[in-house]
Automatic annotation (TrEMBL):
<dbReference type="InterPro" id="IPR036291">
    <property type="entry name" value="NAD(P)-bd_dom_sf"/>
</dbReference>
<dbReference type="Pfam" id="PF00763">
    <property type="entry name" value="THF_DHG_CYH"/>
</dbReference>
<dbReference type="InterPro" id="IPR020630">
    <property type="entry name" value="THF_DH/CycHdrlase_cat_dom"/>
</dbReference>
<dbReference type="GO" id="GO:0004488">
    <property type="term" value="F:methylenetetrahydrofolate dehydrogenase (NADP+) activity"/>
</dbReference>
<keyword id="KW-0554">One-carbon metabolism</keyword>
<protein>
    <recommendedName>
        <fullName>Bifunctional protein FolD</fullName>
        <ecNumber>1.5.1.5</ecNumber>
        <ecNumber>3.5.4.9</ecNumber>
    </recommendedName>
</protein>
<dbReference type="InterPro" id="IPR046346">
    <property type="entry name" value="Aminoacid_DH-like_N_sf"/>
</dbReference>
<keyword id="KW-0368">Histidine biosynthesis</keyword>
<keyword id="KW-0521">NADP</keyword>
<comment type="pathway">
    <text>One-carbon metabolism; tetrahydrofolate interconversion.</text>
</comment>
<dbReference type="GO" id="GO:0000105">
    <property type="term" value="P:L-histidine biosynthetic process"/>
</dbReference>
<comment type="function">
    <text>Catalyzes the oxidation of 5,10-methylenetetrahydrofolate to 5,10-methenyltetrahydrofolate and then the hydrolysis of 5,10-methenyltetrahydrofolate to 10-formyltetrahydrofolate.</text>
</comment>
<feature type="binding site">
    <location>
        <begin position="165"/>
        <end position="167"/>
    </location>
    <ligand>
        <name>NADP(+)</name>
    </ligand>
</feature>
<dbReference type="GO" id="GO:0009086">
    <property type="term" value="P:methionine biosynthetic process"/>
</dbReference>
<keyword id="KW-0511">Multifunctional enzyme</keyword>
<dbReference type="InterPro" id="IPR000672">
    <property type="entry name" value="THF_DH/CycHdrlase"/>
</dbReference>
<keyword id="KW-0658">Purine biosynthesis</keyword>
């Protein structure tokens, strides 16, 4: 058996093409979806992410404002900038690129973004709605992973899902999303004993640990769907995931490649959420008009 690829580039393009039409409709109503991306410092990986987000937005017709701030900016100054964009009605989405410098409390900044403009889906209010199965804004990587199951018509109800990794960005919100779709979910992590005994029982295995080739062929149940969230550099400097792709591809039924799997979907979901926020703004405005 050779696993079928869950093609993130292809699915992301389909999503972008559909979004382009939705943005054109908004333009006709005089609404220009706008995303503000705040980048603090000179982190190389963050610069690449921001550039990719900018390009994706441009193709769809979303206006972007890239706010580049010095490494030594104070927390107070950054919070003041976030507040300014919270209050700007022309801005529909705000994203502060992580990681932030040591002098800034990331949690405080995340909480400062207005929940209705939180395109990253990390605000505690939005996470709370997700766990109550009434989502408003979703973390983009878990959201993108869920799209694979929708687009490839892969069942979730009753499936045994094992997530390796418990971060606030991927593991925890993804567990909630999977539960909301009636899957049976196990979250494993660095303190889990006998990890392989869990991974080998998974109908759906999601690796999000940030360790190159961590999941091997012998860790995977034959026929499992494998989602590789990892983005690592191996000893040769090559970009690889958390899953040893060659070996695992021989036993899995479906697998996401690295690169070209989860990464493009994350950015597509960021764009989709920005457009949804702009559309939501139109709906709210229309309701206010209709109610006099």
């Amino acid at each position: 058996m050779v696993a079928k690829l869950l093609d993130g580039k292809k699915v992301a393009k389909e999503i972008r093409d559909a979004l382009k039409k939705r943005v054109e409709e908004l333009h006709k109503k005089g609404i220009r979806p706008k995303l503000v991306v705040i980048l603090v410092g000179e982190d190389g990986a963050s610069k690449v992410y921001v550039r990719n987000k900018h390009r994706a937005a441009e193709k769809i017709g979303i206006e972007t404002a890239d706010v580049k701030l010095p490494q030594d900016i104070t927390e107070k100054e950054l919070l003041s900038i976030v507040k300014k964009y919270n209050e700007d009605d022309s801005v529909h989405g705000i994203l502060v690129q992580l990681p932030l410098p040591a002098q800034i409390n990331e949690e405080k900044v995340t909480c400062a973004i207005a929940p209705e403009k939180d395109v990253d889906g990390f605000h505690p209010i939005n996470i709370g709605h997700l766990f109550m199965n009434a989502p408003r804004s979703l973390p983009c990587t878990p959201h993108g992973i869920m799209k694979f199951f929708e687009k490839y018509d892969l069942p979730l109800a009753g499936q045994n899902v094992v997530i390796v990794g418990r971060s606030n960005i991927v593991g925890r919100p993804l567990a909630a999303l999977m539960l909301n779709h009636d899957a049976t979910v196990t979250v494993t992590h660095s303190k889990t004993k006998n990890l392989a005994q869990f991974t080998r029982q998974a109908d759906i295995l999601i690796a999000a640990v940030g360790r190159a080739d961590f999941i091997k062929r012998e860790d995977v149940k034959p026929g499992a769907v494998v989602i590789d969230v990892g983005m690592n550099r191996n000893a040769d400097g090559k970009l690889v995931g958390d899953v040893a792709q060659q070996g695992v591809s021989e036993v899995a039924s479906y697998i996401t490649p690295v690169p070209g799997g989860v990464g493009p979907m994350t950015i597509a979901m960021l764009m989709e959420q920005t457009v949804e926020f702009a559309e939501r703004g139109v709906q709210i405005a229309n309701r206010k008009v209709s109610h006099g």
